[in-house]
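Allow me, if you will, to draw on your knowledge of protein folds for a short while. The matter concerns a single protein, recorded as an amino acid sequence and a row of backbone structure tokens. Could you please explain, in whatever detail you think fit, how the structure tokens follow from the sequence? I remain grateful for any guidance, and I place the record below:

…
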Amino acid sequence: MREHNYTIPLNEALEAGVSCFLCKMEDELEERALDYYMGAAVMEPNVRIETNRKGFCRRHAEKMLEMPKKLPLLLALQTRLDTVAEAFRKEKKPGKATEKTCAVCDRAAGQMHKCLENCLWLLRTEPDFLQKYLASQGVCIHHFHALAERMGRSDGALYVQLHEHMEKKLKTLAADIDSFTRSFDYRSTPDASIRTVPGRAVETLTEKRG
């Protein structure tokens, strides 16, 4: 299989043995976005214009607070405050709340869009990647639909393969959840592997980003 800079991370995530390799990619892209805005980029005029306009959501701002250097965050919030205060001064009567925006969310989402496009391209054109996908745990239900909605009429056969893979995964998960719940019966002798069931259930059935 041909490897390029934009396909290597996908292959590495797929080979990591996680419940959803695209969730793993999503986490990595989020971390990169946080590092970007907490680095030297915050001093660039075009970046500061963006953070002034969009700001950060609470979840990402709190993640930034956990990072060692606080100065980049405070520099961005300092000029963001000017934008917020100016807009607030113009509010003379009750009205609709301002739209919720976040520079980190938007950057990570843009990169994730490209990641999904690259993943679908690999599934279409690289048989080795497709076989590795089918032999792995695949993706969560959210990322399955994210891939499916990008497919066209020519992807019918591919969709069937991925759908069958997801259906098998859901059936296995259902059986594992049943085993987990039964393990609380004093008469049962549970297998140690069921300890991973709660985490796998959450990872498979819930979306990471709210």
